[in-house]
Specification:
Elements lengths: L1 H25 L8 E4 L6 E5 L3 H6 L6 E5 L20 E4 L3 E3 L13 E5 L4 E4 L3 E2 L4 E9 L5 E6 L9 E7 L4 E6 L6 E8 L6 E8 L3 E6 L2 E6 L8 E6 L17 E10 L5 H10 L4
Antiparallel strand pairs: 1-2, 3-18, 4-7, 5-6, 6-18, 7-17, 8-17, 9-14, 9-18, 10-11, 10-17, 11-12, 12-13, 14-15, 15-16
Length: about 280
């Protein structure tokens, strides 16, 4: 009889363990939408996967993402919505146009792209701020021409800047150049390939005392320079136009003719793994 009771108690205990294991497995949360690994206390992810471009940029918001613009507004819009939470003031200049069906960032809420006419259109922040020493500026772009600023920093938010650097622009041969202007004179990081092929590309230009200048396109480092400083002045971030005609390869013109999506600036540099992950968030696959 005692042996029979012991057997019943053993079977009952085994059944409880079995049921607990089943419940533990089936109630595990899904991580298919986002995964990340944080390795330190400076908001740096060692690896991450985001489903949309806005999710990717917003990982640094609001503390480290100074502003983020999807650039999906209707043609009648006068300002771009800042999804960073910092409500940075800005203004569409010239003729604002919108094109639907962009293939970059296809999982985001809208496929509209800010379309620039190459003669008058650009976006500028309107509140002047001190020039950053550490930063990363990033944006998706598409063009078939060899001219125009993609992104940059200048001392005017309306018209040509007299002081301008931290600029990403297209040369007449379609290469992408990243320019800063420290006391020692003009410094560049340059891509060897051309990107005026009518396809979408993701560009990141960043600088810090630790890294110098780095230029990434489509998740890959394509140019660098050991220069750790840039010009010091108060200015505004701009996208689509500013003075580049006096820079190497910039004689094609100051205005970008093409499309832009998801422009943003952080007050920290990004790792190569992070940049590659942000790029992947904008792919269709």
């Amino acid at each position: 009889m005692n042996q029979h009771n012991r057997l019943l108690r053993f079977l009952a205990g085994a059944w409880v363990v079995f049921i607990g294991a089943i419940l533990s497995f089936t109630l595990q949360p899904s991580m298919s939408g986002f995964t990340a690994s944080i390795t330190n206390d400076t908001n740096t992810a060692a690896s991450a996967t985001w489903f949309t471009c806005q999710n990717a940029y917003s990982f640094w918001a609001p503390t480290n993402l100074l502003f983020g613009y999807a650039l999906t507004e209707a043609a009648s819009a006068t300002t771009a919505t800042d999804f960073s939470g910092n409500n940075v003031a800005n203004r569409y200049r010239g003729t604002n146009a919108t094109t639907a069906g962009a293939t970059s960032c296809p999982r985001d809420a809208s496929t509209n792209a800010y379309t620039l006419n190459g003669t008058t259109a650009y976006l500028a922040n309107t509140a002047s701020v001190a020039a950053p020493a550490t930063y990363a500026v990033m944006v998706w772009f598409k063009t078939s021409t060899g001219k125009g600023e993609i992104a940059g920093y200048g001392n005017s938010n309306n018209g040509n800047s007299t002081s301008h650097d931290r600029q990403i622009y297209l040369t007449t041969t379609g290469q992408v150049r990243y320019y800063v202007n420290p006391a020692a004179g003009a410094q560049y990081a340059v891509s060897s390939s051309s990107y005026n092929d009518g396809n979408w590309h993701f560009v990141v230009a960043q600088q810090s005392a630790a890294l110098g200048m780095q230029l990434y396109i489509d998740g890959t480092l394509v140019g660098s320079n050991s220069t750790t400083t840039a010009q010091s002045y108060n200015g505004n971030w701009r996208f689509g136009a500013d003075v580049i005609s006096n820079l190497v390869g910039g004689s094609g013109g100051n205005f970008l003719a093409g499309q832009l999506r998801f422009a943003g600036v952080t007050n920290t540099t990004l790792t190569a793994i992070q940049i590659a992950a942000i790029y992947r968030s904008g792919l269709g696959a």
